[in-house]
Amino acid sequence: MRSRKLTCASINFIVVLFSQSVHSQLQVGFYGNSCSLAEFIVKDEVRNSFFRDQGVAADLVRLHFHDCFVRGCDASVLIDSTPSNKAEKDSPANNPSLRGFEVIDNAKARLEAICKGVVSCADIVAFAARDSVELTGGLSYGVPAGRRDGKISLASETLTDLPPPSFNVDQLTKFFSNKGFTQEEMVTLSGAHTIGRSHCTSFSNRLYNFNGTKAQDPSLDFIYASWLKRQCPQGNTNPNLVVPMDPSSPGSTDVGYYS
């Protein structure tokens, strides 16, 4: 019988880490003794995927965010749906736009081969997001690790725990405040949009029918709005039409998004 490749999606139990870590705080270098190649292997998988498709960097950063904002950073976004439960990954907020799952699964399979049952999928997601930032020109940073994987994943929770693209500044500020973030921290985190793309359908109402007025959102910068209209023409029905979040440097983690 051919063995089935272990993936993060197939893990529906809590991964028990080494005894000293179960109740301890997260720490940088957590796998230094238990699986010293953990972060290297994750970075290698991210790098291999990035060379094939540079868009995967933004995908992995978004995957980390969508994981952490629902039940915390517990890899619940990776769990597959079952006949009796629709999981997070199959909610409209994630399916079909959320990508990068295969990178996490490939890293997990390699890690299981050398450190079985040691490295959590939640930590792999966190490492992969950091590596994506670094590969696109951003600063590297130490990732405190020691997370445990959850076993509950509910699509319904994405509706309350993930901010929709329609939120304005006040709504976003309140939303992030409920998660323990200040407005300044919210703005800082929003800078992750320096890489990646957005579907025209996520914002075209602000270009052509803001609040039912059949007019442009007056708060939009005129030059930027004009550029967006050229990319997202009125009446277009292509659901896959996208534009870069940061037109000046769409593939680089820099400060262009803030401009």
Automatic annotation (TrEMBL):
Query: What is the free-text note on the cofactor?
Result: Binds 1 heme b (iron(II)-protoporphyrin IX) group per subunit. Binds 2 calcium ions per subunit.
The organism's place on the tree of life at top rank = Eukaryota
Site residues (Transition state stabilizer), renumbered to this chain: R62
Catalytic positions are H66 (proton acceptor)
Molecular-function annotations in GO:
heme binding; lactoperoxidase activity; metal ion binding
Residues making up the signal peptide according to the UniProt record? 1-24
Q: Which reaction does it catalyse?
A: 2 a phenolic donor + H2O2 = 2 a phenolic radical donor + 2 H2O
Q: Where does Ca(2+) 1 bind?
A: D67, V70, G72, D74, S76, E88
Matching entries from InterPro entries are given as: Haem_peroxidase (IPR002016), Haem_peroxidase_sf (IPR010255), Peroxidase_pln (IPR000823), Peroxidases_AS (IPR019794), Peroxidases_heam-ligand_BS (IPR019793), Secretory_peroxidase (IPR033905)
A Gene Ontology biological process in which this protein takes part is:
hydrogen peroxide catabolic process
UniProt KW Zinc-finger keyword: no
Supply the Pfam families for this chain. peroxidase
**Record flagged with keyword Ion transport:** no
Q: Which residues bind substrate?
A: P163
Task: Give positions of region: Disordered.
Answer: 236-259
Residues annotated to bind heme b? H193
**Enzyme Commission designation:** 1.11.1.7
Residue intervals of the Plant heme peroxidase family profile domain: 25-259
Which cysteines share a disulfide bond?
Answer: C35-C115, C68-C73, C200-C232
Q: Report residues binding Ca(2+) 2.
A: T194, D246, D254
Looking up Gene3D superfamilies in the UniProt record yields: 1.10.520.10, Peroxidase, domain 2 (1.10.420.10)
Q: Which UniProt keywords apply?
A: Calcium, Disulfide bond, Glycoprotein, Heme, Hydrogen peroxide, Iron, Metal-binding, Oxidoreductase, Peroxidase, Signal
Which function does this protein serve? Removal of H(2)O(2), oxidation of toxic reductants, biosynthesis and degradation of lignin, suberization, auxin catabolism, response to environmental stresses such as wounding, pathogen attack and oxidative stress. These functions might be dependent on each isozyme/isoform in each plant tissue.
Q: What name does UniProt use for this protein?
A: peroxidase
This protein's species is Castanea mollissima
